[in-house]
Amino acid sequence: MDMNTLIDMHTHHERCGHAKGTIADYLDAGAKKGLRVMGISDHAPLFAEPEDHPQPGIQMARSHFDGYLDEAQELKERFARQLDVRVGVEADFIPGTEEVYERALEDRRIDYLIGSVHAFGDYHVFRPRTWKGLGRPEELYEHYYATVRAAARSGLFDVLGHIDALKALGPEVDGALDAMVDETLEVIADSGVAVEVNTSGIRKCGEPFPSPAILRRLHEAGVPLTYGSDCHKPDEVAFGWPEIRSMLMDIGVDRLITFEQRQPKSVALE
Ligand SMILES: [Zn+2]
Ligand SMILES: [Zn+2]
Hints:
The chain is of the alpha/beta class. It has eight helices and eleven strands.
């Protein structure tokens, strides 16, 4: 890859149970691809559940979280000459659990938090079998976008993850989405939270999360943008970056945002 590869702020590894390779494998891959800043952001434990590891294969166990932050911290130092490593997590946003998450994620080792809507009520964004029993298909999107708005308003997160991910597998609803998306973008812009361009969308449905049209509107509304491959294999680090870079430059984006100790730090897009 080329020198223009800047950052990748959304990466996973084997702790969550569905990604391959160690954190060091991903950092090695990032260093080889010439990344300047790389964020480690595995799936946070389900902190609000009574069990230590309620969903093996989806998130890490709560009892593994401290070891995760320690290892990430250690690798940050080990890789310091090659990469600026930032330590983060991708946390599920679950309405009603805000205080539990706020306490659990208050840790000096954490540079940034990505908040993502995966499950919302009884539904799951990537599991169509959970959508049975829906009345109108629009309802699914209404629940989804209401949860994304609640995530933005919660103030818990630095970045919102894959904000239009339901489009990957969701039912066709034609024009019904416009008003929901409008309202959601307004809430995001008011909240001050950043939004990632997530290229797992390209792997899942041929375009990034969110779509170029939404990204343009976010940028015009002054919402800070960041980029993440959402890699679950080391060779997916920086996935899709060259096309995202030119798309962002077309839109007029000249900086991307990263975070260090929960403070925003922007990087020029060259
Ligand atoms: Zn994952
Ligand atoms: Zn996610």
